[in-house]
Amino acid sequence: MDRYFEALISGQSRKIEKIYQDFYPRIEDYIKGNSGTRDDAQDIFQKALVQIAVRHRNEPFEIQGDFKNYLFVVCQNLWRRHLKTSKTTIRVDNEYFSRMSTSEDESRALTEQKRFELFIEKLGVLSSNCSRVLELYFSKIAYSEIVTEMGYSTETVARQRVFKCKNQLIRLILSDSRYNQLK
Fold first, then answer.
1. The pLDDT value given to residue 89
2. With the C-alpha atoms ordered 164, 62, 38, 106, is the resulting torsion angle positive or negative?
């Protein structure tokens, strides 16, 4: 188990401070670079840590991969949800009201996180070639660069490989029983 994840779920305050020191600056940069403020970043970071800890307490799970990346994705999802819901607020007599309750919002964020985890898990089941091709594709790397990186002969071959790998990934996700629960 990742040492940061273990520290978070066991409530080790000194190590949780280390999580803040090591990972908060990246989250703050991301949120400030996407229409947010320092206060927004602090709120999102705290929400993410609480969400991960509470979720683990309610249904223990293991993080596939690196805690830093997992935490970043949780924060991204929470920030996107915040931006989306902030567009659905109503102003009445200088007060703002959300059309969605906090618990409903948190539930949706958790579902999005579980979808992402399923996606990452199934991406890991693919061959290393397919995983790499899709990683490049999802990173919006140009087909010409994929050809070079993967040693393909033409962009057509790269496009066909991306298409086949995406279809394999879709089949894996659709065949998983968790998919219907997360729709």
1. 45
2. positive
